[in-house]
Amino acid sequence: MDFTSHESILREKVILALHGTPSLPLALEAARAPLLELTPADYVGLCLITTDPVVDFRWVSPGPRVALLDAKARWLDSDFVRAPSSAQQTVVLRNEQRRLPGELEGAGEDSPSSALDPSQEHVMTLLVPVLPNLLGAFTFYRDHGRPFSDRDAAMVSSFTRHLANAIRNSHELQAVATSARMLEALYDMTDSAYLVVTPGAHEVARSPRATALLEKWFTPSDFNLRGLPNVLQERLEALVGMDAAARAASNPWISLHGDAYRVVRFVELTEAEGPRQWALTLHEIPVSIPLPDTMRLGLTPRQIDIAKAMLRNWSNEQIATELVLSEDTVKTHVRDIFKRLGTDNRTDFLYQAARLSKPV
Predict the structure, then answer these.
(1) In this model, does residue 244 exceed pLDDT 80?
(2) Tell me: the pLDDT tens digits for 296-350?
(3) Counting Cβ atoms within 10 Å, is residue 1 exposed (0-12), middle (13-18) or buried (19+)?
(4) What's the CA gap between 203 and 223, in Å, rounded?
């Protein structure tokens, strides 16, 4: 969608807020004002839904509390948001699309409508896949008669990848960022590989497997005097100077090496004082990556074929030849795939597919 200059300024504020802290409550609180100015609503909340081993949820709601959210435990199984949204991940849905007229009103005392103010009838939700067992439901509530518009939905959709990255960094790596005990636990895991460094490449800690992987991936001439590969040092320095949106597009670093991808993700850690430290997590992923079910559900049959081809490291030209399509058609499908899945580019797509196939 095309943004006005004022909308662009507000979007940048939201993006900076989402990437500005590993704390989801603080990130959403900072994003709340510009977000509600972009998409006028009375309430906004993020529900973190765990699907395995049992279905559970936790609401992160900046601003005033919403009665609907407090009562959710009573009506989770019959939630008119959950089932349709789960089938249409990364697609913004509004309540008019989720239920037939009158369906909600006849659901009984424990239905969502019993927790709503009589005028609070418009809901808009974006369900974002984060991990195989974790989803984020980004939900807006409006307690007056005007329904959410197509432009409102498009605006919310434009934050998909930034929201996914914010949830992922908070949920997956916050413990590494804030807990010495977690670093100690990772240190003792044979399959864990990480470095903790300052932006000047001063090394704070590393796991034994990190040394093994770095020596396998790089030659002695690839390292700087402080023991970090020059290519990773250059990427770290570039990330430090980037804004939030650029960081999301440039993380992780991935390189094809023989029959495996070398993957390094950079995570800025929380420090009470002094320079921020960064964790570099290292993974080696086989070239043959299956298309995860969570990604497959959000794609059309033709997009599934193209996504599988990208996971084989085929170029657009190779995909076009194999599927008997024009290169322009392939490029259009590739852009749509990235948009639907909330990924920034091929590098991010490959990394997320590998993570979802075998979480790292």
Answers:
(1) no
(2) 888 999 999 999 888 887 889 989 988 899 999 999 999 999 999 988 888 788 8
(3) exposed
(4) 13
State the DSSP code for 276.
P
- 25: pLDDT strictly greater than 80: yes
Helices (H), the chain: 5-19, 24-38, 67-70, 72-75, 82-87, 95-98, 112-115, 150-157, 160-178, 180-187, 208-217, 230-240, 244-249, 293-296, 301-311, 316-323, 327-341, 346-357
Please determine, looking at this structure, whether the domain spanning 5-173 carries the CATH number 3.40.1190.10: no
* pTM score over 0.85: no
DSSP code for 223: B
Closest CA to 177 of 209, 204, 200: 204
Q: Where in the chain is the domain with CATH 1.10.10.10?
A: 293-357
Q: How many C-beta atoms lie closer than 10 Å to residue 34's C-beta?
A: 19
Q: Which CATH superfamily is domain 179-286 in?
A: PAS domain (3.30.450.20)
Closest by CA to 206, choosing from 281, 285, 283, 284, is 281
**From the CA atom positions of the chain, what is the Rg in Å?**
22
Give 6-18 pLDDT, tens digit per residue. 989 999 999 888 8
Classify burial at 274, counting beta carbons within 10 Å of its beta carbon; exposed 0-12, middle 13-18, buried 19 or more. Answer: exposed
CB 131 within 8 A of CB 356: yes
Tokens at 122, concatenated: 């418009």
* Token pair of 124 as six digits: 């808009």
Domain 293-357 matching CATH 3.10.20.30: the answer reads no
CA atoms within 13 A on the CB side of 328: 0
The closest alpha carbon to 281, from 270, 267, 260, belongs to: 267
Tell me the sheet residues that pair with 254: 263
Each residue's pLDDT tens digit, 190-224: 556 888 887 776 787 788 788 889 999 999 999 98
